[in-house]
Design brief:
Elements: E1 3-7, H1 12-22, E2 30-36, E3 52-58, H2 67-77, E4 84-87, H3 117-138, E5 158-162, H4 183-202, E6 207-212, E7 220-221, E8 235-236, H5 244-256, E9 275-277
Parallel strand pairs: 1-2, 1-4, 2-3, 4-5, 5-6, 6-9
Antiparallel strand pairs: 7-8
Helix pairs in contact: 1-5, 2-3, 3-4
Length: 285
């Protein structure tokens, strides 16, 4: 029985991934563990499919105290290591006191002049700390696995961490497009890259990859844990963003293979610790 773990499933990319896999037939029923800080919407925006048994868990992964209940949840629901993990929970890290009413105003809420330590810490806790907590909870499941199984026709256990091109130090320059600014988001995503690389070295029994899914049209949402007020709870779509359906289609092809052309074999053992876009092209660290 294939098992999946998906985070951020109450909205955006995580919800789209959950919807996709619940509609995907498999030889045996799929078990999906769906985790989000916020309760799963009822009814969901799109009906879930009949091809999966779904276990929902509401848990704030940015809190260190969440490690114990997350570990307990995994141990009580999974008979073995998850076959596939998508970690898509994250926030942009905009300063709450700065109003954002349009996509043009987003950059005004993350400049050097307005950025504060509290916003930086919150972005690190969600974007980097949350991913670290998930990886730490999963590590024991992969302790007995080995890359020596790479000759097998079966795909390796795969952990797909949603990163961002904005976490690249090399691409953040005065000569690059949209360099500078976005202090909380860039720093937390760069730290996330370092965490995944270290995990790939320390836990060789699975394949962990950082994937930039593209600029996805999920909207920039103020961190709801900060409450309501001026500039909070406002949803702003970024210009030039792609739809979540297109992003999921490309991600599934990248991870599982399929489609036409070379490079569509799916994520394998040789991809451990890579930083790629949704077409599998390497992104500079």
């Amino acid at each position: 029985m294939p098992t999946l773990l998906i985070t951020g499933t109450s909205s955006g990319l995580g919800l789209a991934l959950l919807t996709h896999y619940s509609h995907s037939p498999s030889p045996t029923p799929t078990t999906i563990l769906a985790i989000d800080t916020h309760p799963f919407p009822s009814p969901p925006p799109h009906p879930l499919g009949p091809h999966a048994t779904i276990h929902h868990l509401t848990l704030d992964l940015s809190l260190p105290s969440s490690l114990a209940p997350l570990t307990s949840f995994l141990l009580s629901t999974l008979p073995s290591a998850p076959d596939l993990v998508y970690h898509s929970a994250g926030i942009r890290g905009l300063v709450p006191r700065v109003p954002v009413r349009s996509s043009e105003e987003v950059k005004d809420a993350e400049t050097l002049e307005v950025m504060d330590v509290e916003t930086m810490q919150r972005a690190f806790a969600v974007n980097c700390g949350g991913a670290f907590l998930v990886l730490k909870a999963l590590a024991p499941f992969y302790a007995s696995a080995s890359p020596s199984l790479s000759s097998s026709s079966s795909p390796p256990p795969r952990i797909i961490i949603m990163g961002s091109r904005m976490g690249s130090l090399s691409l953040n320059s005065s000569t690059g497009r949209n360099g500078g600014g976005a202090y909380a988001y860039r720093a937390s995503k760069a730290a996330l890259n370092a965490v995944v690389r270290s995990f790939s070295v320390d836990v060789p029994g699975c394949v962990a990859v950082v994937v930039h899914p593209g600029r996805v049209e999920t909207g920039l949402v103020r961190d709801r844990s900060q409450g309501e007020g001026e500039g909070r709870g406002i949803k702003v779509k970024e210009d030039g963003a792609i739809g979540v359906e297109e992003a999921v289609q490309d991600l599934v092809k990248l991870v599982e293979g399929g489609g036409e052309g070379e490079g569509n074999k799916g994520i394998g053992w040789e991809d451990r610790g890579r930083f790629v876009d949704r077409w599998g092209r390497d992104i500079e660290w």
